[in-house]
Design brief:
single chain; 247 residues; alpha+beta; four-stranded antiparallel beta sheet; membrane; transmembrane helix
Length: 247
């Protein structure tokens, strides 16, 4: 898997409205509104028809909903709809060039990035750099695929060089739950030697409405599934493995 920088020296991505957050915002508000309707019903404040409240309480999950409805609503709004609140404060454009990216007053140099995390479900790339952490929310910017490719194209080759030097020097390199060494890959204390690794791939999964991406490593006929979001610098690891493994 080869990452190459975009040919343009400088490219600007316009801020766009994250319409995908409206569903999650609405779901969170429904949870909170439903619990409020139940709690206020005894005070004769009817946010929902009385028969709806009674049916809800008489159902198998009524009291469970009463207990977890508000926390779930807050969680959904704060987690899945958070891009909407970031959008209200974001600058009008994000600029990417050969040196780094600029987001309003924030400037991030590629040379300062030391690790990255792909969060496929949240449409984010988390860049850990010398001065802290930058969360690139792809859903907020136009031409998100090109932006994603450009960022990886600038960051991955730089990090890959460092990984190659460490492995050549006999130093293990950690990628979250995976450890890379000259002997192979180690996962949960078990070494998968290079000659035993048959294939690696990324696979999208959909579990109860939540989209995730799994890194699947097949060694000696046994597949291992690892959540990509838990693998630190997963694109760097994939680039190294693609170059190291035959085929």
């Amino acid at each position: 898997m080869v990452y190459t920088p975009a040919p343009l020296l400088k490219r600007s991505h316009a801020l766009i409205f994250p319409s995908y957050t409206l569903f999650w915002l609405g779901m969170g508000l429904v949870f909170i509104y439903g619990v409020a309707a139940i709690l206020l019903a005894p005070t004769s404040v009817h946010l929902l028809p009385r028969f709806v409240v009674e049916s809800l309480l008489q159902s198998a999950f009524g009291y469970f909903f009463l207990l977890v409805g508000i926390p779930c609503g807050i969680y959904v709004i704060g987690w899945r709809a958070s891009d909407l609140f970031v959008w209200t404060r974001a600058p009008g454009a994000l600029t990417v060039d050969d040196q780094g990216l600029r987001d309003g007053t924030t400037r991030l140099a590629w040379r300062d990035v030391h690790t990255l995390v792909e969060q496929h479900q949240e449409q984010r790339v988390v860049l850990h750099h010398r001065d802290g952490t930058y969360r690139l929310r792809l859903g907020l910017w136009s031409d998100a695929d090109a932006l994603h490719h450009a960022v990886l194209g600038h960051v991955v080759p730089r990090l890959l060089e460092g990984v190659g030097r460490q492995v050549a020097a006999g130093e293990p390199v950690r990628f979250g739950p995976l450890t890379l060494s000259d002997a192979g890959l180690t996962h949960k204390g078990q070494l998968m030697r290079w000659e035993d690794i048959e294939s690696i791939r990324l696979q999208d999964e959909l579990d109860q409405g939540a989209a995730t991406r799994e890194l699947i490593i097949v060694a000696q006929g046994k597949p291992r599934k690892i959540d990509e979001a838990k693998v630190i610098s997963a694109p760097v690891l994939l680039a190294y493995l693609s170059a190291r493994l035959p085929g």
